[in-house]
């Protein structure tokens, strides 16, 4: 087994080759090793540096805390936001191999302490420029890019709930089997996240892409796939670094001479501007955004590093200023390895190109915006810790804080600093703790929740209101009814009810229009299980979109949906709810597109009592499994639904990927004209429905005219147990055998069902006939008027008998489901021409 040091060294070499870069020279066995005397304890040691002379003059840069580690410890990336710092590290275990983990640190009154640690799978490939961590509020996205041979990677989003960091989502490429280095860079901002995949090849080798995800309820769904252009550009490696802020995305590349700026318009990300810089041939290999400004690290035509700050004037992006290195130790090619921007501060991290010279140093240069100009502020360097072009320091900014790690992968030594940067000359020290107020607040030694530049303890001492005596200024606490008492105190004391437990008094939920109160009892409807929430596309109900109702629905809630067309993606909550259309699938549709599965049902608990009843799910054309519906680790009931005209590599109409501890149920459903375009059993197949690792019951359902580019035109079953009762499979097609149903390593019990007219055969694989099943190469004639020919007269007969016809002589109901509808017409078209005698 390779040690982590060997793995990292090889990763650098392979990663450079994979991206078409000039590889660094291999490590020299005679290279000296630095030895730290700190004993390894398995935890990140923390030592306070000797404080500088802290006068009340707030100037320059102050090192608050220092983290150092023994030679068996490596920091691969760092991130900071407010009082949270996160480290991606590799530590040597007692039995020898290195393990990768995420360390979370929290600053409480000026002291940084470990809050949590999470072990993650070994990664294997780290190469320039890498952004493996990003923080947004109580969420952290982590990059897991796969190995340097190009195997697929992923990104994980962790969410802090009740003081614990929990895995919220695992994001993967649209085709996880392809080696696109998905996850080499990540960024998150609010409810949106972006993941780079620099070896994505829709047009040419290493064209690259950036995948955008957005949070809907508790789920993260793919929103867009951004590409550098609409044609081949081999070797662009677009997505090697990514950044997002609000409605703007930048993605770095290694070979493009223009930078595309993407903005969110009507729910889709589009390239809104394109920027070029004279003399720069490799534009934006590293990128960062903050509000109306961006900073990009590039390379010019001579191979030298260039760093530019951009500014958006409300109409367009333009160059605000070029930054110049102030370090005499820097090789010009290495300047701008990594860039970070926060407010009026920019950090630029660099190293030297030579990989073996022990005199190489890694450093960061700080710049500050003063009087409209970016001025050099300070250089931070480690002369005793060699670094290189490939292993320059990792850094991040938040407010007046800079976190920086100076790694050296081959030497095995590490240093992580957190600095507090002063940008003003404010010498006040109101609480007499030896820190001027600005650094007191910036280093979190004191809070300033109202943002007036005065520590809260001084505000409280000066008599600012704190009516509930909790040590927090009333001005900093939510008071939705403006009665002078904080909401949390009113709820805790029982003065205000909060039936939906969202931390907002019920009266405010109703008054602010976030919850309905149809019976005017002063309590939100979602708190009454017997009162259904209503959705109407025409605006006649409290909700006019389905997802808004699902977001507030409590367990066991029922949501009634009026007729009309709604848009996906629709994501169910983890707890059980019932989503029911009032007028059925003929009048109520949910429409997807090329970036969204129509409906997604996923359960962290492994079981669910969800109900989806009476909808047409249509229009999805997605690059991941499950076009119309994706069920993952859940067991809902899907009733009276139509899956029509959806496309996906696997499960064009619907996909069941695990049913947890329950049985997923499809009853009275119709799958027609769906397409699975994948070309493998695991990654493709199942035009109508694909089932993997699940228990599924299908009753009185019709699979008609679905297609698969591999196998299982109507249905594919893989490692699952399925019961099929009183259902029909007609005229489904596949390129390989299994046009109707493909069964692989599964149990299929069939009763009173019909299989006929399939291209590629009816059933492929073992199945159990429980009686009453018809399997035929030809389907019964769909002649509705009895003249022996299926033609336009039969279509007219269907139109004349359109709608319900239970228990009556209804020859136009060719699928015998008690309804004459579009499925019957499609079956007539499929059997067009003279009937066999």
Plain-language structure description:
By secondary structure, this protein is mainly beta. Strands 30-31-34-37-40-44-48-52-56-59 form a 10-stranded parallel β-sheet, covered by helices on one side. The radius of gyration is 31 Å and the shape is globular.
Extract low-pLDDT stretches: 1-56, 383-390, 408-413
Q: Report the sheet with the most strands, covering strand number, pairing sense and barrel closure.
A: 10 strands, parallel
Count of strand segments:
64
Radius of gyration: 31 Å
Structural class: mainly beta
Number of helices: 8
From the spread of the alpha carbons, the general shape counts as globular
Through-space gap between termini: 71 Å
Quaternary structure classification: single chain
Average of the residue pLDDT scores? 78
Work out the helicity level.
Answer: under 10%
Assess the beta-strand content as a share of residues: 35-45%
Strand order, biggest sheet?
Answer: 30-31-34-37-40-44-48-52-56-59
Tell me the layout of helices and strands.
Blueprint: H1 4-18, E1 46-47, E2 61-69, E3 73-81, E4 84-92, E5 98-108, E6 111-120, E7 133-136, E8 139-144, E9 154-161, E10 164-172, E11 185-189, E12 192-197, E13 209-216, E14 219-226, E15 242-245, E16 248-251, E17 259-265, E18 268-275, E19 280-290, E20 293-300, E21 305-312, E22 317-323, E23 338-342, E24 345-350, E25 362-370, E26 373-382, E27 394-398, E28 401-405, E29 414-421, H2 437-442, H3 456-461, H4 487-492, H5 506-511, E30 533-535, H6 546-552, E31 557-561, E32 564-567, E33 570-571, E34 577-581, E35 588-591, E36 599-602, E37 611-613, E38 616-618, E39 629-632, E40 637-639, E41 642-644, E42 647-648, E43 654-657, E44 664-667, E45 670-672, E46 675-676, E47 689-692, E48 695-699, E49 702-704, E50 707-708, E51 715-718, E52 721-725, E53 728-730, E54 733-734, E55 741-744, E56 747-751, E57 754-756, E58 763-764, E59 768-769, E60 774-776, E61 789-790, H7 792-800, E62 803-804, E63 819-820, H8 822-830, E64 833-834
Parallel strand pairs: 30-31, 31-34, 32-35, 33-36, 34-37, 35-38, 36-39, 37-40, 38-41, 39-43, 40-44, 41-45, 42-46, 43-47, 44-48, 45-49, 46-50, 47-51, 48-52, 49-53, 50-54, 51-55, 52-56, 53-57, 55-58, 56-59, 57-60
Antiparallel strand pairs: 1-2, 2-29, 3-4, 4-5, 5-6, 7-8, 8-9, 9-10, 11-12, 12-13, 13-14, 15-16, 16-17, 17-18, 19-20, 20-21, 21-22, 23-24, 24-25, 25-26, 27-28, 28-29, 61-64, 62-63
């Amino acid at each position: 087994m390779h040690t982590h040091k060997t793995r990292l060294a090889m990763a650098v070499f392979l990663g450079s080759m994979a991206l078409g870069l000039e590889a660094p020279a291999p490590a020299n066995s005679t290279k000296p090793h630095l030895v730290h005397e700190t004993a390894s304890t398995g935890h990140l040691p923390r030592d306070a540096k000797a404080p500088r002379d802290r006068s009340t003059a707030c100037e320059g840069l102050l090192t608050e805390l220092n983290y150092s580690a023994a030679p068996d410890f490596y920091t691969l990336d760092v991130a900071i936001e407010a009082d949270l710092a996160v480290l991606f590290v590799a530590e040597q275990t007692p039995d020898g191999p290195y393990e990768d983990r995420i360390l979370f640190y929290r600053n409480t009154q000026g002291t940084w302490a470990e809050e949590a640690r999470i072990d993650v799978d070994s990664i294997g490939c780290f190469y320039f420029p890498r952004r493996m961590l990003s923080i947004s509020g109580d969420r952290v996205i982590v990059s897991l890019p796969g190995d340097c041979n190009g195997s697929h990677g992923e990104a994980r989003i962790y969410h802090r709930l009740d003081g614990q960091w929990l895995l919220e989502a695992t994001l993967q490429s649209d085709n996880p089997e392809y080696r696109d280095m998905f996850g080499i860079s990540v960024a998150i901002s609010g409810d949106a996240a972006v993941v780079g995949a620099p070896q994505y090849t829709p047009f040419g080798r290493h064209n690259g892409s950036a995948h955008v995800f957005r949070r809907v309820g508790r789920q993260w769904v793919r929103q867009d796939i951004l590409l550098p252009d609409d044609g081949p550009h081999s070797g662009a490696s677009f997505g090697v670094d990514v950044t997002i802020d609000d409605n703007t995305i930048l993605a770095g590349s290694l070979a493009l001479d223009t930078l595309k700026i993407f903005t969110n318009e009507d729910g889709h990300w589009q390239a809104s501007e394109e920027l070029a810089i004279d003399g720069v041939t490799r534009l934006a290999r590293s990128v960062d955004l903050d509000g109306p400004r961006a900073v990009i690290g590039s390379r010019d035509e001579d191979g030298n590093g260039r760093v530019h700050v951009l500014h958006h004037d409300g109409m367009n992006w333009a160059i605000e200023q070029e930054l110049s290195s102030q370090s005499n130790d820097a090789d010009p090619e290495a300047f701008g390895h990594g860039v970070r921007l926060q407010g009026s501060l920019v950090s630029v991290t660099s190293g030297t190109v030579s990989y073996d010279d022990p005199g190489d140093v890694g450093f960061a240069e700080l710049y500050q915006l003063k009087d409209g100009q970016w001025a050099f502020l300070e250089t931070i360097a480690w002369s005793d810790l060699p670094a290189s072009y490939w292993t320059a320091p990792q850094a991040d900014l938040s407010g007046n804080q800079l976190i920086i790690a100076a790694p050296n992968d081959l030497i095995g030594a590490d240093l992580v600093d957190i600095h507090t940067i002063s940008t003003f000359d404010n010498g006040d020290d109101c609480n007499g703790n030896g820190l001027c107020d600005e650094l007191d607040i910036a280093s979190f030694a004191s809070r300033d929740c109202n943002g007036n530049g005065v520590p809260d303890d001084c505000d409280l001492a000066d008599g600012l209101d704190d009516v509930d005596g909790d040590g927090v200024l009333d001005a900093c606490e939510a008071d939705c009814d403006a009665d002078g008492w904080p909401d949390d105190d009113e709820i805790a004391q029982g003065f205000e009810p909060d039936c939906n437990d969202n931390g907002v008094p019920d009266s405010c939920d109703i008054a602010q229009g976030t919850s309905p109160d149809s019976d005017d009892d002063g309590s939100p409807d979602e708190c009454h299980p017997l009162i259904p929430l209503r959705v109407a596309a025409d605006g006649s109900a409290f909700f006019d979109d389905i997802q808004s109702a699902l977001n507030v629905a409590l367990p066991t809630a029922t949501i009634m949906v009026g007729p009309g067309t709604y848009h996906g993606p629709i994501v169910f909550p983890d707890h059980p709810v019932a989503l029911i259309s009032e007028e059925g699938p003929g009048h109520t549709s949910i429409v997807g597109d090329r970036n969204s599965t129509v409906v997604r049902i996923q359960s962290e608990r492994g079981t669910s009592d969800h109900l989806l009843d009476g909808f047409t799910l249509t229009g999805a054309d997605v690059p991941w499994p499950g076009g119309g519906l994706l069920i993952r680790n859940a067991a809902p009931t899907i009733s009276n639904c139509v899956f029509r005209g959806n496309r996906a590599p696997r499960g064009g109409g619907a996909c069941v990927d695990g049913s947890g501890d329950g049985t997923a149920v499809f009853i009275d459903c119709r799958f027609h004209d769906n397409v699975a375009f994948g070309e493998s059993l695991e990654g493709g197949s199942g035009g109508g429905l694909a089932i993997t690792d699940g228990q599924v019951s299908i009753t009185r359902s019709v699979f008609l005219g679905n297609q698969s580019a591999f196998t299982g035109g109507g249905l594919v079953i893989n490692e699952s147990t399925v019961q099929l009762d009183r259902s029909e499979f007609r005229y489904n097609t596949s390129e390989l055998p299994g046009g109707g149903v493909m069964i692989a390593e599964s149990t299929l019990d069939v009763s009173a069902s019909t299989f006929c007219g399939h291209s590629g055969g009816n059933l492929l694989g073992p199945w159990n006939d429980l009686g009453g099943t018809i399997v035929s190469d030809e389907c019964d004639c769909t002649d509705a008027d009895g003249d022996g020919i299926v033609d336009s007269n039969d279509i007219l007969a269907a139109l004349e008998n359109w709608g319900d016809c239970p228990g009556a002589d209804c020859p136009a109901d060719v699928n015998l489901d008690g309804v004459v509808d579009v499925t019957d017409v499609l079956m007539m078209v499929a059997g067009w021409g003279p009937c066999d005698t």
